[in-house]
Amino acid sequence: MNLLKKLKIAIFTVILILISNTAFTQITNDISHEDALKVLLAAKKKAEETNVLVNIAVVDAGANLKAFIRMDESFLGSIDVAIKKAKTARYFDIDTGKLGELTQPGGIIYNIEHSNGGLITFPGGYPIKNKNGKIIGAIGVSGGTIDQDRAIAIFGAESII
Amino acid sequence: MNLLKKLKIAIFTVILILISNTAFTQITNDISHEDALKVLLAAKKKAEETNVLVNIAVVDAGANLKAFIRMDESFLGSIDVAIKKAKTARYFDIDTGKLGELTQPGGIIYNIEHSNGGLITFPGGYPIKNKNGKIIGAIGVSGGTIDQDRAIAIFGAESII
Amino acid sequence: MNLLKKLKIAIFTVILILISNTAFTQITNDISHEDALKVLLAAKKKAEETNVLVNIAVVDAGANLKAFIRMDESFLGSIDVAIKKAKTARYFDIDTGKLGELTQPGGIIYNIEHSNGGLITFPGGYPIKNKNGKIIGAIGVSGGTIDQDRAIAIFGAESII
Amino acid sequence: MNLLKKLKIAIFTVILILISNTAFTQITNDISHEDALKVLLAAKKKAEETNVLVNIAVVDAGANLKAFIRMDESFLGSIDVAIKKAKTARYFDIDTGKLGELTQPGGIIYNIEHSNGGLITFPGGYPIKNKNGKIIGAIGVSGGTIDQDRAIAIFGAESII
Fold this sequence. Notes:
The structure is a homotetramer. Chain A is of the alpha+beta class. In chain A, strands 2-1-4-3 form a four-stranded antiparallel beta sheet. Chain A is 42% helix and 16% strand. The longest helix of chain A has 17 residues, at 3-19. Chain A has helices at 3-19, 33-49, 78-91, 96-102, 146-158, and strands at residues 55-60, 65-70, 125-129, 135-142. The two termini of chain A are 35 Å apart. Chain A has a single domain (27-158), classed as Beta-Lactamase. Chain A contains five helices and four strands, in the order ααββααββα. Chain A is globular and about 65 Å long. Chains in contact: A-B, A-D, B-C, B-D, C-D. Chain A binds chain B through residues 75-78, 80-81, 84, 100, 103-105, 111, 113-114, 118-122, 145-146, and chain B through 62-63, 88, 90-93, 105-106, 108-112, 114-117, 119.
């Protein structure tokens, strides 16, 4: 690399630093446990404010369980549904509700739910992105109506952007 | 808590005791094994009276198996179906037949059966409530027609109210 | 068959009937649900009398679950252990404690527990025989000490002989 | 119940209320999600202070997952181990390390690990009690040495007493 090119990069970097307050915040491609906890608690707060009893799961970039909470009196069956929604959302980097449109009878990926130890393909699973728009994990919410679950999931996912 | 408040509560409690005969009857939020056995035998008697050969499972508030019986000559495949019906009914506090209406193709929770190690979402699973209307477990019946299974399940569940 | 032979058989049968009160009681090679219930309740009564909290499972000749009860406050983990003890006892027609002696490191069937979806090879599983000494099922008891579990299982099994 | 008996009970209740400040504090037999979160965060703080990377799981009285967190860079394989430790501790109401002493070759419950979908019987699982000493759930910790895991689990469990 010649001196001129190095200088250009240096100047560009300085400008970047000057216009951005977050320039020195490390942005990784995997959700940290602190952020997973933030997502979890933001979603929980939203659920409480809207009087919905839910289970909330957060998985990391590797689709492995990172954080989880089950609200008192929420459905027992929603533990597994919430975890599977989060995993499904990360397995295919998609809003689980969108995936469900493709898995209906006659759909292009009909019955894909049989793979990966069981998928959940209705709304409530949602990818989590970092500030750069890179998917770093996913959230799954189960216990309310599918619209409530999806809204809570999106609220949680967006709480760290 | 100040003394006046304590006194008010005390007086209210006295009134409550005086007007109620059931004040000291213990009603818990989990089915006892004696009640589980009552539910089982009531359902079995109903099945025998109507000449239906069934498997009957009762789960507790935690969706754990509490009591079970398989009638002679009933389907071998109904052992697991009866247990899964009971668990499904408690997992989501619902008549399994009602759940099945929502899991059809195009339904809002299509293919939820893939969660929780396998759900059964046709009639025959039914929540069991205590005298206060609180769900304390569930019953699952399998072996007859879905209408017969459901009727036997409801008969069993209501035998302890 | 000639007439003389027929006569001999007839006379032998008459004698058999005359000396036996149970000659016309049907004895099958599979436990009935009524007998399974008797075994269950006998074992439960024994457990209550000796203040042991147990789970009790009865399987039929096909090693399929026939009857089950979990006493209040007994271990949650004993549900599966009781069922597996009963199945193991019938799978190999043996007192599960005897089987365990052979499955130790260096034993002739070391780690057979890995088969059949998981076996339990310590005491508490016991074959159930009919009046003719034929094995017609098995009982599994879990929740007390292994000696208590075994004693309750044997008491239950012998209640229908 | 006659009027005199009712009155006696009423008077006794009044006295009970007057002498006790905690008479109206609800203590249940199942861990709340707020307490589960407290246990989780106390254990996490302890792990961070002692530089141990762990997975922490909390299950409720029904041995169902209630809360979970996986610290960054902790073992992927510890997700399942932590959950199974918590479940095992509640399944048999025991320090998992104590259970492990009984499951060794020649032990009285050798190979019980094959039940309940897989148990973990080395240290790191520990029952959680409420202020009355009643077991209301359990915690499982995995990722450090067994001594570290156990110490963190106990610290978490005792944080809500």
